[in-house]
Amino acid sequence: MESFQKNRPDLESRCTYIVNGDNAKCPHNLNIRQKSIKQKIYPNILSLIGDTPLVRINRIGKEAGIKCDLYRIGLRMVEEAEKDGTLKPGDTVIEPTSGNTGIGLALACAVKGYRCIIVMPEKMSKEKVDVLRALGAEIIRTPNSATFDSPESHIGVAHMLKMKIPNSHILDQYRNPYNPIAHYDTTAEEILEACNGKVDMIVAGAGTGGTLTGLSRKLKEKCPNCIVVGVDPDGSILAVPETLNKTGISFYEVEGIGYDFVPTVLDRSLIDRWYKSGDKLSLKLSRKLIKEEGMLCGASSGSAMSCALQACKDFGLKEGQNCVIILPDSVRNYMTKFLSDEWMFDRDFLDLKDSSNAEWWNALPVSRLKIREPVTVSTDTSIKTVLDIMHEKGFDQVPAIGEDGSFKGMATMVSIMAKMSCGSVHAQDLVVKVITDKFRTVRLDDPLSKLSRILEVHNYAVIKFAHEQYDEKLTSKTKPVVFGIISSIDLLDFIIKNKPVENGVGGGGATNGHTKDNGINENMKSVINKGTEALS
User: Fold this and answer.
1) Same domain assignment for residues 160 and 247
2) Domain CBS: where (predicted)?
3) With b meaning 16 or more CB within 10 Å and e meaning fewer, what string describes 169-194?
4) 263 and 234 part of one domain
5) Residue 300 falls in the annotated catalytic set
6) pLDDT tens per residue across span 405-430
7) Which of these is catalytic: 67, 220, 276, 337?
8) Which one of 92, 163, 405, 523 is most buried, by most CB atoms within 10 A?
């Protein structure tokens, strides 16, 4: 990892830029945007990067401009690497990314003829992967749980590939000075032109920090009183003061903003105030922007919008003042995620709407099901043994338990098959190598309607709770414990064996906690209704 240590993405910046200072000795190429002249025919698609529109928000907030920004830093980093001789014909571009910068790089590489390898965490959407592959990029996925400085992180894997692939380069959005310069030269100029040189507030999410840094520097020069607002998701550590980051959250669904390290290009001294954003409000507001403003924006756009609304109130912006909000992403990348009611409901971001034809069992708690203790395996069990247990019991999944008795995740037939088929694990390896955290959980007091919605999408749900354990020194630690596993057949069995009566429901059938996926979770309510009618 020597290469990584020399090129850590969180090294202190050596940039000597000072707002309104003497920056004549700046070593970087500045290419200040000139007012564009529309052409009838452009030489290639790269000529259309930039000049993205500034649109007025009419229903959600007044006097708030929306800047829809895409891809420009990818092209700028490639062009500057060509100018200084780093990139040559036949070379390979490697980039660790959450996807959006990767798409910009892949687009530039596709047009210019470079091989492109994108390394991205597993949580990034399928749509981003599809677009990248369509552009000819090769994709490598890394675990969500990997910290940025671990060998298996997207950054660590990218540096490993660079050492192994001849004539390969990491343009490195986290350290590349042309990341913020692209926004200083072009995005900020476009905003100033659209607002006639008057910007009272700028709001942008922080990913690498290039957008915030570039915009802040130019706008502080041209509009000294402009308020710069940084948006950082709960679970990230970019905001200051540091107390803002103590949320107890480690994972967040919103993509493209937030990190577990402070990127070199992010100049936090320029940010007047930081706001934290939560998944639920961010994603619901992204949907609202689509529905009420017709803006087909991505998830982090909701984060920026929610914080902008609060910032306008906090700073007392009045009618006639301009607040510009950066929307850096398109809904195209999230068609199967926050745009889906099922996906939102599955993560408790969307409440189940009241229905006049609600089923009699909807409001009953999960605890009404009779759930036996699940069969479990320890994390030091071999994959072969786990498969034998699954075969003997007729299960498709079993919980994996660590040495301390805590629930570590699920060993599933799907996850084992996926990793064995590509040769990343073998039968004698420990099952800990294939356990997955991609499962849905319910509480015993959750309504069966929630369980039903989960089972329409997933093969099973896990009942999990936190167990607080004390030692002799009266120090406590909380560990997750699995209570049971519920599948479609368990819920169906309960409903069919119980008939509604005036004062409630009778007893229920016992469940075994594990079943195979037999397709029963599709059109769940239709199947249940037919089964109930047959017994009537």
Assistant:
1) no
2) 370-430
3) bbbbbbbbbbbbbbbbbbbbbbbbeb
4) yes
5) yes
6) 888 999 998 888 878 877 778 999 99
7) 67
8) 92
